[in-house]
Design goal:
Double Stranded RNA Binding Domain; two-stranded antiparallel ribbon; 5 helices; 17% strand; mitochondrion; translation release factor activity, codon specific; protein biosynthesis; Mito_Transl_Release_Factor
Length: 174
C-alpha cells in the first residue's frame, strides 16, 4: 500500500508518531487505534469488500431518469433509475435494480467504485483479480463437465459395441 493510501482514511482511525530507526533516521508510521491489527477488512469498512479507491462526491454527476424493463407502468413512469458519471474518468453507471431510489443510489456507487478501481489500478485491482479467479473456476468447471460427457459417451459406445458383439456370438452359436 502506498503512502497516499494511508491518508485517505478518517483521522480518527489513524495517528502518526515518529520512531527512531538507527542514528538520525526517522520514519513516520501510521498506527490504528491501540490493540487492533490493521487488516484489509478494516480498511474497506465491510466484510468481504476489498479496499477500493474512495469516490469523491464532488467528482460525481448524478441523474435520476425513468425506469425501463418489465413491470409496466410502475417502472416506466417513475424516475428511480440512477445514472452516475465519474467526471475525471468518464465512466458512466446506470442502476435500476430495485424500485427504491436510495437502494439504487447505493448500488450505483458500489458498482462505480469497482469500475473506477479497475480503471485506475488495472490488473492490480482486487475486483479484477476476483473476476479473473471466478472466470478461471468457471472454465475449469466447463472443462470437467466436457470431459465427463466425453467419458459417458465413450462408455455408452463401448457398452453398445459389447452388446453387438454378444448378440453376434449368440446368433453364430445358434
Amino acid at each position: 500500500m502506498n503512502t497516499r493510501a494511508w491518508w485517505r482514511f478518517p483521522a480518527l482511525l489513524t495517528r502518526t508518531c515518529r520512531v527512531p530507526r538507527g542514528p538520525g533516521l526517522w520514519e513516520t508510521l501510521a498506527l490504528l487505534s491501540p490493540g487492533v491489527a490493521p487488516t484489509a477488512v478494516q480498511m474497506a469498512g465491510k466484510k468481504g469488500c476489498p479496499a477500493l479507491c474512495p469516490l469523491d462526491e464532488n467528482d460525481l454527476e448524478e441523474q435520476f431518469v425513468k425506469g425501463h424493463g418489465p413491470g409496466g407502468q410502475a417502472t416506466n413512469k417513475t424516475s428511480n433509475c440512477v445514472v452516475l458519471k465519474h467526471m475525471p474518468s468518464g465512466i458512466v453507471v446506470k442502476c435500476h435494480q430495485t424500485r427504491s431510489v436510495d437502494q439504487n443510489r447505493k448500488l450505483a456507487r458500489k458498482i462505480l467504485q469497482e469500475k473506477v478501481d479497475v480503471f485506475y489500478n488495472g490488473e492490480k485491482s482486487p475486483v479484477y483479480k476476483e473476476k479473473r479467479e471466478a472466470q478461471k473456476k468457471k472454465q475449469e468447471r466447463k472443462k470437467r463437465t466436457k470431459e465427463t460427457l466425453e467419458k459417458k459417451k465413450l462408455l455408452k459406445e463401448l457398452r453398445e459395441s459389447s452388446e453387438n458383439v454378444t448378440e453376434k456370438r449368440t446368433a453364430d452359436s445358434d
